[in-house]
Request: fold
Amino acid sequence: KVWQSPVAGNLYLSVGWRYDAGIHILAGMSVAIGVAIASTLNTLFNTDQFKLKWPNDIWWSDHKVAGILIEVQGDAASECACVIGLGVNVAPKSQWAEQVSGVRWQTLTDIANSASVQLPDRNTLAAKLAQAIISVCNTYDSVGIAGYLEAFTALDALHEREVVVDSAQGLLVGRAKGVDSTGLLQVEIDGLTQNLNAAEVSLRIQ
Reply:
């Protein structure tokens, strides 16, 4: 993977959280965090166009704006911890020395300019996004992914769209059917629905 970013232009932050229960309680957390981030951006921009591309990307008009990475460590039965990382494209594309080839991407500044919306400064933006993540973390051990499935459906950028699944078995074409009760992506391939884990596949719009 290639990373490119203008100095002091974009936003990168991490939130750490500990739970007393086993690691299983964090199943589907990337869906919940994605819902929280997309919803926060939609509120800031007074729109409904920020969508969640399973499992961890925020899209605007099929262009990547932000990415989420969650690392989890702990015991199956007792304690666990997670670190939630968030990266957001903020600076205008014109500030970037090079553009990443082969990736459709967009920035909050350019979106704000095109929509005539006042973009918050990076500190305010960071505070609001961190607040959204903390809100999920505060209750996730009791609410779980069930509390976010309805919101995910409304924000699902892949819903009922044809996708290409890049798996260990090769490229497969199917239709995205949302997520199951544990956050696995459901894809209908040759008339059969398969539940896909983020660690097993990568997806792209065909």
Q: What stands out?
A: The longest strand covers residues 63-74. DSSP finds four helices and ten strands in the chain. The longest helix spans residues 122-143. The two ends are 21 Å apart (CA to CA).
